[in-house]
Specification:
By secondary structure, the protein is α/β, with parallel strands linked by helices. It folds into two domains: 20-152 and 345-363, 2-Layer Sandwich (Nucleotidyltransferase, domain 5); 165-341, Nucleotidyltransferase, domain 5. The protein has twelve helices and 13 strands. A five-stranded mixed β-sheet has the order 3-2-1-4-8, sandwiched between helices. The protein is globular and about 65 Å long.
Length: 364
């Protein structure tokens, strides 16, 4: 284990962009230049552990952003190196904010993969190639404060509840179509989960009997018909058949090239077949939300992720109209479908907010 230090900085790496000057500029323009003026102040840290990047954000006691730091995740280097990089990223943010370990009230981390929420262990993070990651234990040892973990989608939904599109709502459900489809729920200020595991696996709701298989081998799930991966596959077939000429000419039929931006361009440039595919996916999302509304009666359903960001009107309007049409009449006016507001910051912001709520409630 790397020896703890107050402000450890990783050795310069020529292959990693230096974000320091950029982050200083963002901090000065958006968040102001105020630094720590009293050693009595306490700060919360939110951390987003992503497949390609990791982000640490420091918040004051009122959960206003102070500063941030980021690095590439480099999951291929292994979990121990990954834990080192997590600590280094937090320490870099500490150095920018001019705070030491004694001023950290707590750390919250949004993590991928199946989790042990009580012990703070990542059982498996397939996109990183890590398993049995003792992240809570390492952070508490390194920084001398309490740490909590949450599923990354749960943290993102909590961020929207605390700071964003669903601020202050009694019940919020988030649906995030991407490679798969993630979901989360905040109910009465609490992340909805099992005794020691996450839930709200919206992407695995079965919708189409004997439908296509999803990545887990289940037939006809929401992921199999409405994820960005499923949409890209259908769009590639349309391009191959000559039904999406703009997509074919500019992005071809390799689904690795048909990402959210390419799909948006295709629709904007008249590929009707691609628009039909997207609208069909939105209808399936709407159908799944009908089930959620009947079960949980959320005030707000938040749609997020790159696909929704690239095509907000198509997805939000279509899903809202479809779900309102299919729910029982008594439920039509109790919820609304909105686009997420926080973007890439959602998970780190939600992780910090959840850490504050969890740690402070445990003291009472």
């Amino acid at each position: 284990m790397r020896k703890p230090c107050e402000f450890h900085r990783a050795a310069p790496e020529s292959t990693v962009p230096d974000w320091t000057q950029f982050d200083k500029l963002v901090d000065s323009i958006v968040y102001g230049n105020s630094k720590v003026s009293s050693n009595n102040k306490k700060y919360w840290i939110g951390f987003d552990l992503g497949g390609t990047k990791m982000l640490a954000v420091i918040f004051d006691q009122e959960l206003d952003i102070v500063t941030r730091a980021r690095k590439k995740t480099k999951g291929f280097e292994g979990k121990e190196a990954g834990l080192d990089r997590i600590c280094e990223t937090i320490e870099e943010a500490q150095k920018k904010a001019e705070i030491d370990n004694s001023q950290i009230a707590g750390i919250g981390v949004g993590c991928p993969g199946p989790l042990d929420l009580q012990k703070g262990i990542i059982h498996e993070a397939p996109n990183l190639g890590w398993s049995n990651v003792q992240i809570k234990k390492r952070l508490e040892s390194e920084f001398g404060c309490s740490a909590v973990i949450a599923n990354d989608v749960d943290a993102g939904v909590f961020g929207e509840y605390k700071f964003g599109a669903a601020k202050g709502a009694r019940c919020v459900v988030g649906v995030f179509p991407g490679t798969g489809i993630g979901g989360g729920c905040v109910y009465n200020g609490q992340i909805l989960h099992g005794t020691n595991c996450t839930c709200m696996e919206i992407g695995h709701i079965p919708l189409v009997p004997n439908g296509p298989l999803d990545g887990c081998g289940n037939a006809g799930t929401l992921e199999s018909v409405a994820s960005r991966l499923a949409i890209s596959g259908a769009a590639a077939q349309a391009a191959y058949r000559g039904q999406a000429p703009y997509l074919m000419e500019n992005h071809g039929t390799d689904i690795r090239s048909i990402r959210s931006g390419a799909l948006s361009e295709s629709v904007e440039n008249g590929d009707r077949a691609v628009k039909d595919i997207l609208e069909n996916a939105a209808d399936h999302l709407g159908l799944s939300i009908v089930t959620i509304v009947h079960l949980l009666a959320p005030d707000i359903v938040v749609l997020g992720g790159g696909l929704v960001e690239a095509l907000p009107k198509l997805f939000v309007d279509r899903v809202n109209q479809f779900s309102k049409k299919r729910v029982l009449p008594a439920y039509r006016d109790v919820f609304k479908v909105v686009a997420a507001k926080l973007g890439d910051d959602a998970t780190a912001m939600g992780a910090a907010g959840w850490a504050q709520a969890s740690i402070e409630s445990s003291k009472n």
